[in-house]
Amino acid sequence: MSMTVDRTQIEALVRSAIRQTQPPGGSALPSASANPPVAKSSSPLGWVDGKPNLRVSISARHCHLTDEHVEILFGKGSVLEPDKDLYQDGFYAAKQTVMVVGPRRRMLPSVRVLGPTRAFSQLELAFTDSISLGIDAPVRHSGNIEGTPGCVLVGPAGTVQLDQGVIRAARHVHMNDHDAAYFGVANGDMMQLLIKSADCSMTFDDVLVRADKAAKLEVHIDTDEGNACHLDAASEVHLQPMPQPCACGH
Q1: pLDDT (tens digit, 9 = 90+) per residue, 82-114?
Q2: Locations of Polar residues compositional bias (predicted)?
Q3: Residue 116, preceding bond cis, omega within 30 degrees?
Q4: Parallel/antiparallel/unpaired status of strands 122-125 and 139-140
Q5: Which of 132, 148, 169 is the last residue before a domain boundary?
């Protein structure tokens, strides 16, 4: 979907709201961990007591920006300013936020920017976020934005109109080679996540494996999924390969 807007009108509509909006505090990725967060130096990256340390994180709505769009939104010469490190080394929640404007001027006033910058800009939402914006965002894996809807991003210095790049991020798991060998999976495979919590236990299928030798074992689910299973109060989290269908076809 492509949107055409009067940028002057949009800026007049939201500029004052941006000035009044304070960036939200707290971690960009609330999470539950299967093990204590203390690793032995002799273990593979992220491992505890000789096995992977599973972390399940809620990936709240956020956006990724190009260097060009950072300068347009926040002023010439601007760069992303790290605020809080994320669990994956080298990635961070930036101090900067943007306002997102959808069809019929529906808005999300303060969406966190994550760094570092990328080759293309992308907005990742939960289903309820897309409803609020009035955008029919498809479920896609990060980077697969061809044919997706667009939106308008508004910063303190300017606006950017995205012709595509708005998605509902599909659930996935980051892991390194040691983790993949432990679970017997490879990059691109699908896994199953089981979460036990009082009256809200759930099983999530189709968790995409994203293997990288520098990654630590971490599942990303969105805000709606995290609320549905009451992740903050989870007593157990388990990750396993997707069960294979039996010979009978069931």
Answers
A1: 999 999 999 999 999 999 999 888 999 999 999
A2: 20-44
A3: yes
A4: unpaired
A5: 169
